[in-house]
Known about the structure:
Distance between the termini of chain A: 39 Å
CATH topology of the largest domain in chain A: Rossmann fold
Largest sheet of chain B: 8 strands, mixed
Strand content of chain B: 15-25%
Largest sheet of chain A: 8 strands, mixed
CATH architecture of the largest domain in chain A: 3-Layer(aba) Sandwich
Largest interface: A-B, 54 and 48 residues
Number of domains of chain A: 2
Radius of gyration of chain A: 21 Å
Number of domains of chain B: 2
Shape of chain A: globular
CATH superfamily of the largest domain in chain A: P-loop containing nucleotide triphosphate hydrolases
Number of helices of chain A: 12
Structural class of chain B: alpha/beta
CATH class of the largest domain in chain A: Alpha Beta
Order of helices and strands of chain B: EEEHEEHEHHHEHEHEEHHHEE
Strand content of chain A: 15-25%
Structural class of chain A: alpha/beta
Helix content of chain B: 25-40%
Oligomer: heterodimer
Helix content of chain A: 25-40%
Strand order of the largest sheet of chain A: 7-8-9-3-10-11-13-12
Amino acid sequence: MALLEVDNLTVDIPLADGVLHAVNGVSFSLERGETLAIVGESGSGKSMTSLALMNLLPKRAERSAGRLVFDGIDLATAPETRMRGLRGNRMAMIFQEPMTSLNPSYSIGNQLTEALRCHRSVSAAEARDRAVQLLDKVGIPTAARRLNQYPHQLSGGLRQRVMIAMALMCGPDLIIADEPTTALDVTIQAQILHLLADLKTEFGMAMILISHDLGVVARVADKVAVMYAGRVVESGAARPLFRAPRHPYTRGLLNCIPVPGRTAPGAPLGAIPGQLPSLIGPQQGCAFRQRCAFAAAECAGDIPFAAAGPGHLVRCVRAEALEAAA
Amino acid sequence: MSETLLELRHVTRTFDLSQGVFRRAATLTAVADVSLTVKRGEVFALVGESGSGKTTLAKMLLGLLPPSSGEILVGGTPISAKDRVAVSRRVQPIFQDPYSSLNPRKPVAQLIALPLLVHGVGDRATRRAKVMEMLELVGLSPRHYDSYPGQLSGGQRQRVAIARALILRPEVVICDEPTSALDVSVQAQILNLLLELKRELGLTYFFISHNLAVVEHLADRVAVMYLGRFVEERTRVGLFASPRHPYTRALLQSVLTPDPDLGVPDTRIGATMIGGDVGCPFHPRCPDAIDICRTTPPAVRTLPDGWATCHLVEEEALQIS
């Protein structure tokens, strides 16, 4: 049985001028030890999807789902007390900005041990030992000394490592990493990604990686879901999806990043013209059609999620025709 | 293409860090003995991790921060001798975050026209015409004239910032991470725009970035900075084909191309930027360090297309093959 099953997840946010459809029918499943990457640009609904799983959405937001099951527990109906028992314990989150998600007025040690002491009956000394052990594991030198330090005394890379150690304190089954390396230097990014991969193997965790960086996603993910305007437009195993992307948006994203040795220096990069459509009000047809070079009349109708290969799904009515033309 | 437009001669900048009331201030050297020349029409890229001194260098080029020692020349004239306003006619910045670099309470037209006002260029009508011209040049529509930054997307804001930087027709544009706060599709649009404007207006860019894929795409020359020093300076082609300094190699290895068959590279360098007090500043993190690296600072090794400071790099004479 899959560790996490999400079927038809929807997040609506009622606003003064209509309902904003932040997440619109997202489905995926995740096995233990697997990494799913959710790729998308700002406004695609990728962070809302992860917050919906943790039930940490903004107050006004309304969540609904056909199925939202984590290790046999129905998250859709679980009361807050149950969720509180899961969050930080069996499902943990690594946020993007370690500067804003660590509390500046508590020591590192205090923040690290809090979750463990909350969820397990351990002594302060045991919690401390575990914190030192994990800080050591995430590659923080002189871990024991760091416990008494405050977030501002650490560099960005170290703070992000503290965030990761904090997420691992209770040995979670699922870790949700929302842009875990975006704020970091490239050299440190590589180290953090290494670390996450090692920890995943060691503890058999499943991971949902949320990122807009296709380079990171390609190197780390087993499965990929590309989101656009609240919908998954393409999903599948990482290799076939990156080798032969089928949705014009996925192709567009891959064409607009410079790749040393592949893109010609100075030549124009493939750009996706226009911008994200408004997500307020009823959403009809393919949300990408106004920006798509291959759009046709049929794109304004309902777009089914169709198989493009084994386990490879694409939400584009023109995909077949495009493939034939190429 | 051969005229030198921007020149730095042994530029150093230090800051005094207060250690408390009763202790003597410590000295932080943000930029140490940097010399470089940028030719007209060139894209000179500066790469390095955060804390390497890139932004301090940019501030000095803009005349916002005087160097502690050394000289900065724009078109042969030392800028320390001029006032800041005169420098800003020739050198203009584009910053990383278009959300914080534009005053949210000013309409786009005023934001773009501000440099003209500061320099007392033109009257109302000519300023309006110039703003309209800039809007078109950076790919914004005339209806954005009266918009406020809050009504614009990230990409549109960065276009406003570019229009503002270019309205005085500067010779050098200092681009400090101009695309790193943007989505990938918007990043492509802005990079295309920057290249287009460079060709059209004959601009020279001093381009600061930590994204080496972007640097490879648009730079002519690249300098790699570590703890305030340049450790390698090469042509783009040379640097990407055969990086010499171990730090440059680590940076290049860290570029993640969207290649699902490759894993995450192991750069074998530590996470924290700590300098050695003696010897090569990179030796505490260097995977290839040998004894001499810990004791003696490396000298400059000349290469056919630039130079590197590393004990392990062999000097190469200029060869014509």
